[in-house]
Amino acid sequence: MKTNLFTAAVVLLFLFNACTEDDVSDVKYNEMSLAAFMDSGQDNYPDNYPDNYRENYNDYEENPFIKVSDQPVSTFSVDADGGSYANMRRFLYLGQTPPKASVRIEEYLNYFTFDYAEPQNGENVSLNSEIASCPWNTEHYLMRLGMKGKTIPENELPNSNYVFLIDVSGSMNSPEKLGILKSGFKTMTDNLKDQDRIAIVTYAGEAGVLLPSTYCDEKDKIKAAIDKLGAGGSTAGAAGIITAYEIAEENFIPEGNNRVILGSDGDFNVGASSTDELVELIEEKRESGIYLTVLGVGTGNLNDHMMEQIANKGNGNYEYIDNANQIQKVFTHEFGKFFTVAKDSKIQLTFNENTVDSYRLIGYENRSLENEDFENDSTDAGEIGSSQTITALYELVLANASTNEKFAQFDFRYKKPNASESQLIMHEVNATPTNISNSSENMQFAAGVGGFGLMMKQSEYKGEVSKQMVLELLGNSLTFDPFGYRQEFVDLVSDWQE
Q: Which of 42, 249, 281, 467 has the greatest number of beta carbons closer than 10 A?
């Protein structure tokens, strides 16, 4: 098996290295490195992997079941990332199981858009909920929480001040890294209004300004600058971050959309380079009112943990770009995510002991908050973009499924983009639990994604979940699929070899 994979890897590496940067839009999967083929099907990297092929993840301990009588309140921050799902897809396309530590089930769920209602009554977020039987444990139930950010019509989008912060260090020197970022940033440039602005900052051994802030009525000039990008040298990521924020602040648009977009494999090695140091730097910079999007690329030395954390702490989100189709998703189909409608978004569930015996939050392990943080407006939390949906799943043991009492109080607190004080939305979870087969498409699809995530996580809570179960749940929930991402997931699971 390994001999065949080795041969395939050599052929694929030859083909990918033969690609020019102009060819990258035709490359389906952005990097198939030799390392990715060396131990197919294993969830941990073997000891003899070269250092430059070691990817960096942080394995968070799964949330346990908690008795409502001991702790009735559950509080956590919204997570709007999708990076873990796209990274998993990269592994599966290579015939591998992703490392357990790379699996963040909330990012599997939030990769997808759900069919949730628009906010009403002047709010920027809507809430909904549902309870159904748990398919992988028939004695348990699933509770789905849904949130949707207000859709801003295209003609009402505020003017934008973007700084593209692009890693051009030696580790980025391939069409599947720098090449795919160049393609993505040119796609985004084409989608911007003439009144929007773009600056380009690069970093390798030191930071440099490739393009001063330029109005997008000069798109050819901006794309010509992107085309000039080349890679080489070490990686002074902290210097690049500082420079990018300085330029964003100099061109700040009051009441506008001000955002740094960082593209990298995360291999920072000059100056402040540890995750803790970079998080501290980002936490300082987020006070400027500038948002952050982090785009991860590549295989072998991907520092997923660092990039997810700086996005988390920098009023931002983290996406992984594994293929050319993902460029269209991030930069075109879900363009509204670049426009925040709710910042510092927090969720607090208060369970009713009369109806719920115990609960377990699926995923969101690194987003937990202290209960007192919910009303503390100085506590950082997650951001939601225009039209973006957020989904969370709890697995429940019910004390009484047939009751007129509510199961939980679902409170949601957020700040509007230019506000310093939060506002509260309240929602009662009181719908009668249904059988999963009779639940909504939103519920069945969330259960299918969550169940698959439990399999990838090799979770102790996965119960009787199976590939067939996941496919049945997904197959019942494909009516709402505006860009085909649900069907793509069905195909991915179907092709996956357990």
A: 281
